[in-house]
Amino acid sequence: MATDWLYLRRRAVNALALALSTLATLVGLGFLAWILWETLRQGIAALDLKLFTRITAYGADGGLANAMVGSLVIDALGILIATPIGVLAGAWLAEYANRTRLGESIRFLNDILLSAPSIVLGLFVYTIVVLPSTALTHGNTTFSGLAGGVALALIALPVIVRTTDEMLRLVPSTLREAALSLGIPQWKLTLQILMRAARSGIITGVLLALARISGETAPLLFTAFGNNYMTFNPLDKMSSLPQVIYQYANDPGDAMHALAWAGAFVVTMFVLLLSLVSRLVLSRNKVSHD
Amino acid sequence: MSSPPAAVADSLAEQRSRRDARDDRLFGWLLKGCALLVLAALLGAAGATLWGGRHAFGTFGWHFLTSSAWDPGNDVYGALVPVYGTVVTSVIALLIAVPVSFGIALYLSEVAPAWLRTPVASAIELLAGIPSIIYGMWGLFIFAPFFAEHIKPFFTSYLGDKPDDGKLSWVAAHVPFVGKLFGTDYPFGAGVLTAGIVLAVMVIPFISSVMREVFQTVPTRLKESAYALGSSTWEVAWDIVLPYTRSAVIGGIFLGLGRALGETMAVTFVLGNALELSPSLLDPGASIASTIANQFSEAAGLQKSSLMALAFLLFVVTFIVLLVARLMLRRLAHKEGR
């Protein structure tokens, strides 16, 4: 009798636990569906041609054209700054310092930078870019798209370092030995052979970094600041989609909320598209190596 | 045409190898410099915020940490309210996210049919890719009203000490603290608990993907031995898989905690931004990040310095949390001999 009861209890506990774990998965998927569905629904309802043609200076009657341009410029600056530094740093970790103590420490710290609070990085850039440029130009250049780009570069950097490092370490060492035995210097080996072998992986890292920074808001609030007019000048204050979404969502007007949803829709689509493309790049790479 | 004399060829080769060696050295320095920028970014962020916050630390001293005042009118600032808000929202987020993430990881590694695992895992990971501003929008316009209408009334009338109809529930009257935790006069959906829930949704993909990854590192032999002895799936998960991966699971939880502590946008939207200390989870609050995001652009003088000081505190705390997380994660990697 006692064993029967124990057996039944164990079976019940097992069934309950497995049911709860399925439920947890459904809860996670449910939240994903809920968030995406609302973003699509509200965003598509607010889509309008003037979104792309008018600037935010018109307020509720305006669009998001300057914010989109600003986002493109700031994101491009961030990627342009972070990619060369990140790729070279990743190459150092994988090729020069793979098992050294300094290399291991920097790899470790890079992982921490990867999840460091972006708002603090924004304040850091405020201190090292915005404040000095204000002082040097006597207040003519204060907040700027460039400062925003530097802030986003700091967020993109650890992503690129990590993927480059990992992708280079996946390259078979026979390739290195073959090249070195031909007398090729290490810099040529790194840049022209290993980078080429790991190219699609590195591109994936850059795309992932782009996806990560294109939704970043907090560090832009006190670096690029925002600008209601169209500008292409990175030394000017610049608005960006996330910053305008933040501003409009806090506005009491319904028309502003609709614009914010439209912006949220554009940002979400862009980010999802990027993660899709980066997956495709990576899977193509895998196929070619098999 | 005759080949060059051996001596000349030697010196050409020598020149060349010397040039290569020099280039290699320069290239190595360049790479090392780039890698050191990672270090510089971390040190710089800590240094810049400490430097920016020196007036606040100098003026208030240790009192800055224990004072709940945040009064731009009288130029008096204390970190207690935002620190409390940050800690409480993150703890709520973990209380919800850890069991759910464990459930998801268990489902994906033991329960789900093989063909379903990759798509479901990708979908959960998609949740991590959604920008935090989108979580903020959804939280503010969709979830907070939903919470105010459907979930909050339950808490206020059955658990809180300020129910709408004035009748105290048994729990509120007899169990200490619960009434205070869930009592509020605040009519809106934004608040500490709402922010905690939104944060939980944000960190679930991080924690569950770490858990799933480390669950897969458990040697099949171990699990099969347990099954052979008659264990159920749940017993294998709880008594074999979890103890084997304990340090990495804790690392994953700390990783999620690090994310939750530093998250800005989603929290700023749904926390209500009230710089007052309230014991109620349904009242609005403020976190370090939300206070900085709200006030920094318009702040000057001592207020700006206090915000920088808050950022320094946040950075130090998240750094320590993430350090612990990475160390715990590495322990499992070492165990595997990786």
Task: Give a nutshell description of this structure.
Chain A: It is a multi-pass membrane protein. The complex is a heterodimer of chains A (290) and B (338). With 290 residues, chain A is mainly α.
Could you state the order of secondary-structure elements of chain A as H and E?
HHHHHHHHHHHH
Spatial separation of the terminal alpha carbons of chain B: 57 Å
Number of strands of chain A: 0
Task: Report the sheet-strand fraction of chain A.
Answer: under 5%
Rg of chain A over CA atoms, rounded to whole Å, is: 24 Å
Largest interface: A-B, 83 and 88 residues
CATH superfamily of the domain at 66-240 in chain A: MetI-like
Unreliable residue runs of chain A: none
**Which spans of chain B of ≥5 residues are poorly predicted at pLDDT below 50?**
none
Rg on CA atoms of chain B, Å? 27 Å
Number of strands of chain B: 2
Major sheet details of chain A = none
- CATH architecture level-2 label of chain B: Orthogonal Bundle
Enumerate how many helices of chain B there are, as a single number. Answer: 15
CATH topology of chain B: MetI-like fold
Describe the main β-sheet of chain B briefly.
Answer: 2 strands, antiparallel
How are the strands of the biggest sheet of chain B laid out side by side?
Answer: 1-2
Please estimate the helix content of chain A. Answer: over 70%
> CATH homologous superfamily of chain B?
MetI-like
Transmembrane segments (chain A): 12-37, 76-96, 108-131, 143-161, 202-225, 258-282
Organism (chain A): Fulvimonas soli
Subcellular location (chain A): Cell inner membrane; Cell membrane
Domain ABC transmembrane type-1 (chain A): 68-278
